[in-house]
Structure formats: structure tokens, C-alpha cells
């Protein structure tokens, strides 16, 4: 098996005028992992995914997909890549079947049976004009097209934002069942605000805040490592203290990285509480 | 076979549909046919069949420029549709389609250049005998063939053609607006013959305006928010930002007290949410109109009624840009406990639209007066400084004529707002709202021109045209608004039973349509 990471991002920075979308982001996504990218609106999630894919050119830094520079993807790498953007980008003048067939014809690994099966699962009528589909239906169609060539690298930018609960369930099932044609481990990068969904599928989590990496790691590792502490006094800023917030006059809440926090930084009798992904997100962002 | 068919459908759709392809191919065939006919049969100067050659020149030019536009659209698809960009082999396919488009455009350019050079040269020979090709004497019985067109005329036409192509490529390389909006400049350029070389700069100026507008739109108006942020981020940022004009109006609404202020409060709460960019563009457009007004006191070039009609119609066109009713969030307001009654809403709509319109007119006046002074001092544009128009720096030139037009534009804009707010039934229908802006102009134009005719035929002092600006003020500043006000009164009873949810729904659908159209114009993705 190839040891190079599925995605490698180094010192990526992106600015739009006076707004910093990404600030020196560096990360590797190992093959076979499912990376959940979370952050508040404007944190830089979409910008990061677009830079990863070479759709947006960063001011500095570079990224690689499956060992290939993102800004110069080869057809081989493109054939192994599936992408669903936040707002589905489809050719509105075609019918669903034509759209599937047109895009499918470009991929060497395209599976016509899988495409049809996914259309049935996602309740998409092939004879409808794309422009007549609702936003959710377009999103489902984009998912079908992203999955039907059985890629081993999937990038989803808020794929379920427009889907109803049934659509979300179908999406997650399709993702669980997804296998790459060539037997390669499937790597998934997914950004979403639906943390309970991410909790079910993610092996790794990346928290972004104002374009910077706030926290990254394996989900189990983070659950074990990053915990919530409540103290009666403030704690001085230091390594391992990720966030502090005053709840009341004599009540402070801290998100701490227990491995990085110095011994004695917390009062001796402080109780530490493990956090779910949702709780951690809330604690880091409020 | 099926994939070939799908690719064909994709390309056909990409280029504007089967009808567009058919028009394109027919244009190509017809222009070659007419070129062959013109080559085989030289025609006399006054031969009416020459108009076939001129029409074919337009068709061929449009086909060639259309191909260039299709090329820019293809580039845009490559840049904008991530699904296409990230699929394998798309670069190769795009290159193949590009080659076909370049080939077809080049094929269409040959008859276009030849026919345009023929038409332009024969026109010049006939109209400007001093510039005849050596030894050629114009006579209506003589014929003029393609062999009589000097080679430099072909070269000049080819150069002009290449310049327009370059402009199209520059102007539309990013907008993605090729299928609908860009056809306007294409047809304009295709139809612009270059009989008088003095106007060689016209297509380039038009191209420059497109490039500048696109730049202004991208970088200053919709700018970064439109281009760079995702849908959700964009909406969040938009929510966080309140335009200063709206903010001022909201503060004004908050300060108002008492029952007398209910209308003002409603209108302030309904303040148009983001009119700054549109206001600026409209004001600039109207200011340019004020700059190019003739310097004499008549409203038109001397004498002819036809030109007088054109000048007024153009003024109405400018007025219609300044007074554009837009959708308002009716239900949001209808549910607020601010002491309003259903019958007040007609007045509220009028207030909101009128305020928007007069803001634009006043900004345009401010800018227009300053620009007009600068342009007059610089002697530009040259044709307005010619003896026909320029009567010297008089009170009329500097003040009265532009002032008359400002008052006239205000009156016309007010009339449009009055008519637009007349009937709640019209405002409840998205289809009616779609045609409302043009329908009001169509209604008001003949009435305005009719009033003008009445005044000029019955008031001796206004008959000679030198007091055209007075007629303009009387008609558009007083008579037209009076008519519009009376028209509004006729329908005002309908507001007693107006369905506010229906108006809200109609306006929402209308607004969505406009947004979609705007996205098409700017190339923004919805």
C-alpha cells in the first residue's frame, strides 16, 4: 500500500482582500481515514477544501492529493476523486440521465449499475430536467455523481445541508457502503454542521477557527485528551489551555488538552469531563 | 453512441440550445450564399438588393462574434463548475470544442469582413465622393463590385473585427453572461457598420465600458462577498452588514412618533435593503445623460419631429432606469404592530419607490452638473461642441437645459412610481410585476409625447422649438405626474380589499426571477 498521505497540506494561506480565509494551515490526511472539518461560518472550511482540490489558488503554501499537486491534477488522480460542493454545480440544461451519462462517460471506473442504484436510493427521476429539481434533489444528484465512479478519495463540502432527514440517512448509508473499485482504502474529507452525523462516521476531526487550525486529531484520541474542567478561578494562558470562559463570578470553564497541560496547572481537586463532538465544538466556539 | 449523443446535447445546451445552434448555422450558410451572390453579380449603388448584403454582413458578424462568446462561456464552465473541472479528460474535451468554435467563428468571419468592407466602402464612395478610389465616378447607374473594394479596406475591416473579438474575449472571459446578456453588445457590434471611419472608436468605447462595468461590479459592488465566499458564509456576512443608507432610514423610523408618522415609519422600515450599488450605477448613467445633452435650448437637433421624438424617448429610457420599482418585504411589515391600515400600503409603496428614485436623480444631478462643466471646458464630446448644438456658454447651456432635464426626470420617475403603486392586483402577480417597469414606460411615453404635441400646437411661444426645455419641464414635471396621480386615484379603492399575502408572494417570485437574471448577468452562481 502506498504510504503517502491521501491529502497533504502545507502552510496554506488564503486571503480575500482584507479577510483572512486560511492562515498557515498544515495537515495530512491519512489514507482510509474520515476527516470531519468543523468550524463556525466563515471559519475557512470551504476555502480549505477548495484549496485542497486546486479549485482556489492560495496566496502561499501548497497541497497534494494522492501525491499529485492540487493545482495540476492528472487525469488518473481526477478519476480517483469524488467531490460534492456546498451548492451543487450541475448543468441545468440537461436531464438527470444525460447529466449522469455525460459525467459518467468521463470516468474510466464509472459504474452504470451503481449510478442507477444510487438514483433509486436517492429517489431521483432520471428523466427530469436538472433545472426543475429542488436544491435537495440537486444535492442528491451531485452525491450520486461523486460516488458512482467508485473513487477512493471523497471530498464533501456540507453535502447534507439541503437534505431532509431521509436524505441524510441515505447519504450516510451510501457512504458506509462505499467501496473503491480498486480495493484502495477510501479516504473521506467532509465538512458539515451536523455534528451528530459526523460523530458517527469521523475517524479524525479538524476544528478550524478564523482560518487557523484550532485542534486536529483522531476522534477517540481527542475524546480522551481534550476535556472540560470547571474551576473557581481563572487560569493563566499556557500550553494545553485551549479555551477559557467565565460562567459566573466564581466559576470558570476551561477546555484543556490534558497531555499538553503542565502538571499543577489545574487545582488538585478539579474534575475533568470528557466531551462529545458537539459539546467540544460548543466549548471551543463560545 | 449514447455518450456521443449526450456530449452533443451538452455542447448544444452549453452554447444556448438547439435554436441558437440552428440560427448560427443558418447565418453561416446564408452569409456564404449571399457573399457568393454578391461576388457573382455586381450591383448598382441604389440597388435595393444591396440591403441583402448588409443583412448578411450582420448575420455573419453575429455568428462569428457568437462563436467567440461561446468560447468564453466554455472557459467559464471550466472555471466555475468544479464537477467539470475535477473530472478527467475535460481539458481535452474543452480544447476540442474550443477548436471547433474557433474554426466556425473564423469561417463566419470571412464573409463578415468581406461584406462589411464592401458595404462600408460602397457607402463611403457614394456619400463621400472626395474620397473615391482613383478614377471612380459615382453614378446611380454604375455598378460597384467586390473588386472595387481596395485591399486596405478589407485590412481595416479585418483589424476592426479582430479588435472587437479581442474585446469580447477580454470583457466576457469571466462573467459567464454570454448566453443572454452578452448577445446585446454582440448584435450592436454586428450591426454597426463602419461607413464613417470617424466612429471607429465606438465599438472599442463600448467594449471598454463593459470591461470597466465588470471590473467595478466584481471588485467594488458585489466584489469579494459575491465571488469568494460560499453561499452560507455570504448570507451570514450580508446579514451582519447593514448598508449605511438603510441604517440611517431605520434610525429615522425609530425616532418617528405618533399616528401622523405611521406612513413615514412604514416606509422607513421597508427601506430598500441594499440600494447603494444600484443607486450609484443609475446615477452615473443619468449623469452621463446630462453630460451629453445638447448645449442649445431645444431638446433635439434642429427641426425634425422624428429627432424630437427620439430625444424624448431616450429621456424616458433614462427615467425608467432611475425609477425601477423593486420587491418589498410586505408581510414582514404587515405583521408589525405599527398601527397601519391596509389602505395605507399603496402610499407606502409609492413613498419607498419614490424616495429611491429621487435619491438617484439628485445624485445624478449633482454628478451631471459637475461633469457637464468639466466636459464643456474640455470641449468634449466634440459633436456637442459643433455649431449646430453649441450656442456658447450661456445661462441656458450651463443651467437651464440640465435643470430642465433634472426636473423632467424627477417628474417622469415620480409618474412611474405612481402608476406602479396604483393597483394591488398588479402587485400580486409576478408576471405583471415582471412587465410592470416596461409597461409603465409604454403607457407614459405616448401620453408625454401627446402632451408635447398639444403644447407645441396650441401655445405659440413653444412652437419654434427653442423653448424645448420649457416644454420638457411642463410636460414631464407637471402634466405627466398629474395624469399619473389621477390614474392612481382611479385604482386606489382596490387597496381596501388588497391581499397582502398575495402581494408578498407575487413580489417574492418576482424578486427570485430578478435575482436569477442578475446571477446570469454577473456570472454568479445561485
What can be said about this structure in brief?
The complex is a heterodimer of chains A (286) and B (526). With 286 residues, chain A is α/β, with parallel strands linked by helices.
Number of DSSP-assigned strands of chain A: 14
Distance between the termini of chain A: 42 Å
Amino- and carboxy-terminal Cα gap of chain B: 33 Å
Largest sheet of chain B: 2 strands, antiparallel
CATH topology of the largest domain in chain A: Rossmann fold
> What order do the strands of the largest sheet of chain A run in, or round the barrel if closed?
6-7-8-3-9-10
Report the mean per-residue pLDDT of chain A as an integer: 87
Low-pLDDT ranges of chain B: 221-240, 296-307, 386-391
Largest sheet: number of strands, sense, barrel closure of chain A: 6 strands, mixed
Total domain count of chain A: 2
Number of domain modules of chain B: 2
The total of beta strands of chain B comes to: 2
Strand order of the largest sheet of chain B: 1-2
- Give the largest interface pair and sizes: A-B, 38 and 33 residues
Oligomer: heterodimer
Report on this structure.
The complex is a heterodimer of chains A (286) and B (526). Chain A has 286 residues and is of the alpha/beta class. Chain A has 2 domains: 7-210, Rossmann fold (3-Layer(aba) Sandwich); 225-284, no CATH class. Chain A has 9 helices and 14 strands. In chain A, the strands form 3 sheets. A 6-stranded mixed β-sheet of chain A has the order 6-7-8-3-9-10, sandwiched between helices. A 4-stranded antiparallel β-sheet of chain A has the order 2-1-4-5, covered by helices on one side. In chain A, strands 12-13-11-14 form a 4-stranded antiparallel β-sheet. In chain A, strand 7, helix 6 and strand 8 (187-191) form a beta-alpha-beta unit. In chain A, helix 4 runs antiparallel to helix 5 (135-147) and helix 5 runs parallel beside helix 6 (165-177). Chain A is elongated. A two-stranded antiparallel ribbon of chain B has the order 1-2. Chain B has helices spanning 2-14, 18-40, 50-80, 82-85, 90-127, 151-172, 183-191, 201-221, 223-228, 231-240, 244-255, 262-269, 276-291, 305-322, 330-334, 345-378, 395-420, 424-427, 430-458, 460-463, 468-491, 500-522; strands at residues 43-44, 143-144. Helix content of chain B is 72%, strand content 1%. Chain B is built from 22 helices and 2 strands. Chain B folds into 2 domains: 2-128 and 147-190, no CATH class; 272-522, no CATH class. Chain B is mainly alpha-helical and 526 residues long. The model of chain B is unreliable at 221-240, 296-307 and 386-391 (pLDDT under 50). The longest helix of chain B has 38 residues, at 90-127. The A-B interface holds A 16-17, 19, 21, 41-42, 46, 50, 53, 55, 73, 75-76, 78-79, 81, 83, 85-87, 89-91, 93-94, 98, 101-103, 105-108, 142, 145, 157-158, 161 and B 2-3, 6-7, 9-10, 13-14, 17, 80-90, 93, 223-224, 228-233, 236-237, 525-526.
Amino acid at each position: 500500500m502506498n504510504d503517502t498521505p491521501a491529502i497533504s497540506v502545507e502552510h496554506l494561506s488564503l486571503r480575500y482582500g482584507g479577510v483572512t480565509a486560511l492562515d498557515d494551515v498544515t495537515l495530512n490526511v491519512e489514507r482510509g481515514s474520515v476527516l470531519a472539518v468543523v468550524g463556525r461560518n466563515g471559519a475557512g472550511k470551504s476555502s480549505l477544501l477548495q484549496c485542497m482540490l486546486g479549485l482556489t489558488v492560495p496566496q502561499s503554501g501548497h497541497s497534494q492529493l494522492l501525491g499529485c499537486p492540487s493545482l495540476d491534477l492528472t487525469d488518473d488522480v481526477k478519476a480517483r476523486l469524488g467531490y460534492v460542493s456546498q451548492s451543487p454545480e450541475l448543468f441545468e440544461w440537461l436531464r438527470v440521465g444525460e447529466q449522469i451519462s455525460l459525467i459518467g462517460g468521463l470516468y474510466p471506473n464509472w459504474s452504470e449499475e451503481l449510478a442507477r442504484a444510487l438514483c433509486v436510493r436517492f429517489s431521483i427521476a432520471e428523466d427530469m430536467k436538472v433545472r426543475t429539481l429542488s436544491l435537495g434533489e440537486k444535492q442528491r444528484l451531485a452525491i450520486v455523481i461523486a460516488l458512482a465512479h467508485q473513487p477512493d478519495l471523497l471530498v464533501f463540502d456540507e453535502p447534507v445541508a439541503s437534505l431532509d432527514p431521509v436524505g441524510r440517512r441515505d447519504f450516510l448509508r451510501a457512504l458506509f457502503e462505499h467501496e473503491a473499485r480498486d480495493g484502495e482504502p477510501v479516504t473521506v474529507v467532509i465538512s458539515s454542521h451536523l455534528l451528530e452525523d459526523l460523530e458517527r462516521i469521523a475517524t479524525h476531526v479538524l476544528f478550524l477557527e478564523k482560518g487557523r487550525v484550532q485542534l486536529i486529531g483522531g476522534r477517540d484520541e481527542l475524546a480522551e485528551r481534550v476535556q472540560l474542567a470547571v474551576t473557581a478561578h481563572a487560569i493563566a494562558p499556557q500550553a494545553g489551555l485551549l479555551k477559557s470562559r467565565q460562567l459566573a463570578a466564581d466559576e470558570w470553564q476551561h477546555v484543556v488538552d490534558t497531555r499538553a497541560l503542565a502538571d499543577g496547572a489545574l487545582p488538585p481537586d478539579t474534575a475533568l469531563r470528557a466531551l462529545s463532538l458537539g459539546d467540544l465544538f460548543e466549548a471551543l466556539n463560545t | 453512441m449514447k455518450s456521443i449523443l449526450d456530449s452533443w446535447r451538452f455542447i448544444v445546451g452549453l452554447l444556448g440550445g438547439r435554436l441558437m445552434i440552428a440560427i448560427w448555422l443558418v447565418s453561416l450558410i446564408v452569409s456564404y450564399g449571399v457573399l457568393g451572390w454578391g461576388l457573382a453579380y455586381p450591383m448598382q449603388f441604389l440597388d435595393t438588393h444591396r440591403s441583402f448584403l448588409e443583412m448578411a454582413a450582420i448575420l455573419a458578424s453575429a455568428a462569428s462574434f457568437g462563436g467567440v462568446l461561446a468560447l468564453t462561456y466554455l472557459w467559464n464552465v471550466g472555471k466555475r463548475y468544479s464537477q467539470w473541472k475535477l473530472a478527467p479528460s475535460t481539458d481535452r474535451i474543452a480544447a476540442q470544442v474550443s477548436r471547433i468554435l474557433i474554426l466556425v467563428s473564423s469561417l463566419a468571419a470571412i464573409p463578415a469582413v468581406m461584406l462589411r468592407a464592401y458595404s462600408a466602402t460602397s457607402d463611403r464612395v457614394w456619400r463621400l465622393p472626395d474620397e473615391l478610389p482613383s478614377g471612380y465616378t459615382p453614378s446611380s447607374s454604375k455598378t460597384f463590385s467586390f473588386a472595387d473594394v481596395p485591399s486596405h479596406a478589407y485590412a481595416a475591416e479585418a483589424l476592426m473585427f479582430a479588435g472587437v473579438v479581442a474585446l469580447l474575449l477580454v470583457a466576457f472571459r469571466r462573467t459567464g453572461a454570454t448566453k443572454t446578456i452578452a448577445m446585446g453588445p454582440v448584435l450592436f457590434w454586428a450591426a454597426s457598420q463602419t461607413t464613417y471611419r470617424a466612429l471607429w472608436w465606438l465599438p472599442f468605447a463600448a467594449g471598454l465600458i463593459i470591461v470597466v462595468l465588470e471590473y467595478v461590479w466584481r471588485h467594488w459592488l458585489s466584489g469579494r462577498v459575491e465571488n469568494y465566499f460560499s453561499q452560507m458564509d455570504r448570507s451570514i456576512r450580508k446579514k451582519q452588514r447593514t448598508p449605511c443608507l438603510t441604517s440611517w432610514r431605520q434610525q429615522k423610523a425609530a425616532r418617528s412618533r405618533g399616528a401622523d408618522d405611521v406612513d413615514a415609519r412604514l416606509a422607513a422600515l421597508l427601506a430598500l435593503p441594499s440600494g447603494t450599488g444600484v443607486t450609484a450605477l443609475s446615477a452615473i448613467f443619468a449623469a452621463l445623460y446630462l453630460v451629453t445633452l445638447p448645449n442649445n435650448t431645444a431638446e433635439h437637433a434642429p427641426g425634425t419631429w422624428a429627432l424630437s421624438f427620439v430625444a424624448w424617448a431616450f429621456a424616458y429610457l433614462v427615467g425608467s432606469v432611475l425609477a425601477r420599482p423593486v420587491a418589498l418585504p410586505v408581510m414582514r411589515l404587515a405583521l408589525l404592530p405599527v398601527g397601519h391600515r391596509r389602505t395605507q400600503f399603496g402610499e407606502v409603496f409609492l413613498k419607498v419607490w419614490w424616495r429611491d428614485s429621487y435619491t438617484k436623480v439628485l445624485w445624478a444631478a449633482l454628478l451631471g452638473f459637475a461633469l457637464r462643466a468639466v466636459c464643456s471646458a474640455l470641449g468634449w464630446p466634440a459633436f456637442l461642441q459643433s455649431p449646430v448644438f453649441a450656442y456658447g456658454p450661456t445661462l441656458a447651456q450651463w443651467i437651464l437645459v440640465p435643470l430642465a432635464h433634472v426636473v423632467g426626470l424627477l417628474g417622469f420617475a415620480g409618474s412611474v412610481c405612481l402608476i406602479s403603486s396604483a393597483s394591488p392586483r398588479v402587485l400580486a402577480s409576478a408576471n405583471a410585476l415582471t412587465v410592470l417597469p416596461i409597461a409603465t414606460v409604454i403607457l407614459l411615453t405616448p401620453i408625454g409625447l401627446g402632451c408635447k404635441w398639444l403644447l407645441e400646437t396650441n401655445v405659440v411661444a413653444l412652437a419654434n422649438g427653442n423653448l424645448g426645455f420649457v416644454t420638457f419641464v411642463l410636460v414631464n414635471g407637471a402634466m405627466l405626474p398629474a395624469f399619473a396621480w389621477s390614474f392612481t386615484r382611479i385604482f386606489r379603492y382596490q387597496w381596501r380589499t388588497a391581499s397582502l399575502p398575495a402581494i408578498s408572494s407575487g413580489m417574492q417570485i418576482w424578486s427570485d426571477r430578478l435575482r436569477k437574471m442578475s446571477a446570469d448577468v454577473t456570472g454568479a452562481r445561485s
